[in-house]
TrEMBL record:
Residues 233-395 form the Acyl-CoA oxidase C-alpha1 domain. Belongs to the acyl-CoA oxidase family. Residues 1-91 form the Acyl-coenzyme A oxidase N-terminal domain. Keywords: FAD, Fatty acid metabolism, Flavoprotein, Lipid metabolism, Oxidoreductase, Peroxisome, Signal. It is found in: Peroxisome. It comes from the Eukaryota. Residues 432-611 form the Acyl-CoA oxidase C-terminal domain. Its cofactor is FAD. This is Acyl-coenzyme A oxidase.
């Protein structure tokens, strides 16, 4: 109810207005509105905040830069920079991606050369492709960067390290000497974020600005490794784990709320010719578009909670020096981020399209969501690259499964029990335990199939790296299959352990079965090819899905209402709680800047001569048409 937090209509603002408004609102919320325990904003408002603000600023400052100080800094460095960053007295970003490289980190070209005489690092972008490009908050906001650069001592390269580099003056906010920095221009979304470019030429920083939890450089230039160097990639794992809830589950839930509510209001066409027009939600085709996406919200939410818990447990172990869980966590977080962002972004577009013409209007609130979700497929690890990272781990585990009993998320790779499906009715295929087994079997076969294909190629003389490249599509499919079995399995377990009413558990179980069956029906080629289902059982799987659509239809609106988004959060003429779609659309359109005058003078000047000629002809004064 705080008017300072109410959204102005984003679609009627310029990019610069949105950038400025997002900064005002973010700082107001984080520094004025919310109670804080040290850095951490606390209380129920924080949960609301994560749902409420459509356009944050300082996402990278808060979500990446500060956690990196904690992960990569020594206690002294944390004591120095954390309080400043936590209170926004310095603004930072995570500057890793370059104009020429984003996925292949070993190809990064920015270098930090140690100058022993002055005990400094000299930072350089040796050529244009080395320029940092994309980091959020970097173009106009940040005055510091956590710069990921190649450490060089006496001509020897030591790989990517993190350096604290000040880029703007703390009084004037002007770029410092040797720093060229700015905004990278208009993007598909994130209009309010100043993703930036950063060109560094002979910028000097003290030796103490190398974040030294994992390695350090002594004054004489001696390089000391202090821990598992893979932990240098830890920031990306943490963001991948955390972004699923924030940037995939939440936006998809908003899109589903809008589309389901609108579909309950929008009447179009007839089912029974003798009856009145029906709400489009009565069409099974519409239910088939919307309800599996609603199910995805819940299943992704449950799986993400499990992944966050796994990351938390791993973090506690790392503090004790045990990094043994890192390979599995990296593979799972990379795979989950890739597969759920792929599903989420596709799902948001499916439900947008299901709203017809008004779904194409920014007044629906859907284009904002769809465009923003598309970015989740690219940032924090491009999806294909992430799926291949996941597959790399799965192939290794499949080899190990031949001699060891595996545990954790890959346990099923060493499960050699009979996994044939005995389902005789579509009801059998709605059973959670049957659906879990089907997904485990499909994943195991997909991993083994990809591995076998590569082994055969290598046996026939193909170099391993070429076999890997040529089988990439099978490897990506194996990664997807692995994640799907993880999402279905963790969701079934989560729901079974949930203490809630029987009616709620029934709905959640139906949604879980719908999610699993929709995945089976969308990938039935795999399920038949790997002998998981017969062709007749595939028919039953389709019947099972359609039956669930029918069962869930009466509760569809109630289910999305349970996400509890206010109208101000949704900013949607189609998804407002009162369902007054047409009045809201008309009011929204009238507020468009284009309509602030009845005649748009700038364009009228071009049209005026022709209109006047037409007027004269119609009033009998003008010459006949030139044509
Ligand atoms: C909290 C925030 C919440 C929400 C965010 C809100 C909104 C988001 C808004 C905007 C976006 C925000 C930020 C965006 C930030 C960014 O995009 S930052 C840049 C992200 N960039 C990447 O992710 C780069 C991806 N590339 C890589 O990670 C690596 O290049 C690679 C693909 C993994 C390859 O690396 P490399 O060549 O060194 O490795 P390999 O030879 O393939 O493997 C070597 C071994 O290392 C293991 N490995 C690789 N990565 C990791 C890791 N991260 N952790 C642990 N281990 C890792 C790999 O498994 C190999 O192990 P082995 O098999 O045992 O040899
Ligand atoms: C909205 C947004 C915010 C961002 N914020 C930040 C930030 O704050 N900080 C930061 O450092 N970066 C940020 N990034 C950059 C982001 O991390 C990179 O764009 C991302 O890692 C992808 O790298 P790339 O752009 O080099 O794509 P590329 O890797 O060049 O991808 C191009 C194509 O090559 C394919 N490809 C690449 N490598 C392989 C391979 N090994 N095998 C098969 N195919 C491959 C990809 O699948 C893709 O199809 C942001 C990006 C966006 C869009």
């Amino acid at each position: 109810n705080d008017t300072s937090m109410q959204h102005r209509n984003l679609n009627h603002m310029t990019r610069e207005e949105r950038f400025s408004e997002a900064m005002r609102r973010t700082l107001y919320a984080l520094k004025v509105l919310l109670p804080r325990e040290g850095w951490t904003p606390v209380g129920p408002e924080m949960k609301y905040l994560a749902r409420a603000i459509k356009e944050f600023t300082f996402i990278i400052h808060a979500g990446v830069f500060i956690p990196c100080i904690m992960s990569y800094g020594t206690n002294e460095q944390i004591a120095k920079w954390f309080p400043l960053a936590a209170d926004f007295r310095i603004i930072g970003t995570y500057a890793q991606t370059e104009l020429g490289h984003g996925s292949f980190l070993r190809g990064l070209e920015t270098i930090a050369t140690y100058d022993r005489a002055n005990q400094e690092f000299i930072i350089n972008c040796p050529k244009i492709t080395a320029m940092k490009w994309w980091p959020g908050d970097m173009g106009k906001s940040a005055n510091h960067v956590l710069l990921m650069a190649e450490l060089v001592i006496d001509g020897k390269k030591y790989g990517m390290h993190g350096f604290m580099v000040q880029i703007r003056d703390l009084t004037t906010h002007e770029p410092l000497p040797g720093v060229t920095v700015g905004d990278i221009g208009a993007k598909l979304s994130f209009e309010s974020v100043d993703n930036g470019f950063l060109y560094l030429q002979n910028v000097r920083i003290p030796r103490e600005n190398l974040l030294s939890k994992l390695s350090e450089v002594h004054p004489d230039g001696t390089y000391i490794k202090k821990g598992n160097q893979r932990l240098m990639y830890g920031s990306m794992v943490r963001v991948r784990v955390n972004l699923i809830a924030h940037e995939i589950v939440m936006p998809l839930a908003k899109a589903c709320t809008i589309a389901v509510r609108y579909s309950a209001v929008r009447r179009q066409g007839l089912i029974n010719p003798s009856k009145e027009e029906v709400p489009v939600l009565d069409y099974v085709a519409q239910q088939h578009k919307l309800l599996p996406q609603v199910a995805t919200v819940f299943m992704a939410h449950f799986a993400a909670k499990q992944l966050v818990k796994m990351h938390h447990d791993y973090s506690l172990e790392v503090e004790k020096g045990n990094t043994s869980q890192l390979p599995e966590l990296h593979a799972l977080s990379a795979g989950m981020k890739a597969c759920l962002s792929e599903q989420g972004a596709a799902g948001a577009e499916i439900v947008r399209r299901a709203c017809g013409g008004h779904g194409y209007s920014c007044g629906s609130g859907l284009p904002f969501i769809v465009n923003r979700m598309l970015a989740t497929c690219t940032y924090e690890g491009e999806n294909t690259v992430m799926q291949l990272q996941c597959a790399r781990y799965l192939i290794k585990c499949a080899d190990q499964a031949k001699k060891d009993k595996l545990t954790g998320s890959v346990w099923y790779l060493s499960d050699f029990s009979n996994m044939s499906c005995t389902a005789q009715t579509f009801g059998d295929l709605q059973e959670p335990s049957v659906l879990v087994k089907l997904h485990e079997r499909r994943a195991k076969c997909a991993v083994q199939h990809a591995g076998k294909k590569m082994q055969n190629m290598v046996k026939n003389g193909t170099p391993a790296h070429d076999a890997w490249n040529m089988m990439a599509t099978l490897l990506i499919n194996a990664a997807r299959a692995h994640i799907m079995q993880y999402v279905v399995g963790t969701s079934v377990t989560y729901i079974s352990e949930l203490s809630c009413s029987a009616s709620l558990k029934k709905i959640l179980t139906q949604l879980c079965a719908l999610y699993a069956l929709h995945n089976i029906n969308s990938n039935c080629g795999d399920f038949v090819k790997f002998g998981c289902l017969t062709s007749a059982q595939c028919d039953l799987a389709q019947e099972a899905e359609f039956n669930l659509l029918k069962q869930l239809r009466p509760d569809a609106v109630g289910i999305v209402d349970s996400f509890d988004f206010t109208d101000d959060i949704l900013q949607s003429c189609l998804g407002a709680y009162d369902g007054n779609v047409y009045e809201r659309l008309f009011e929204w359109a009238k507020q468009a800047p284009m309509n602030k005058t009845e005649v748009h003078q700038d364009s009228y000047q071009y049209l005026q001569p022709y209109l006047h000629e037409g007027r004269d002809v119609l009033e009998g004064r003008g010459r006949n048409s030139k044509l």
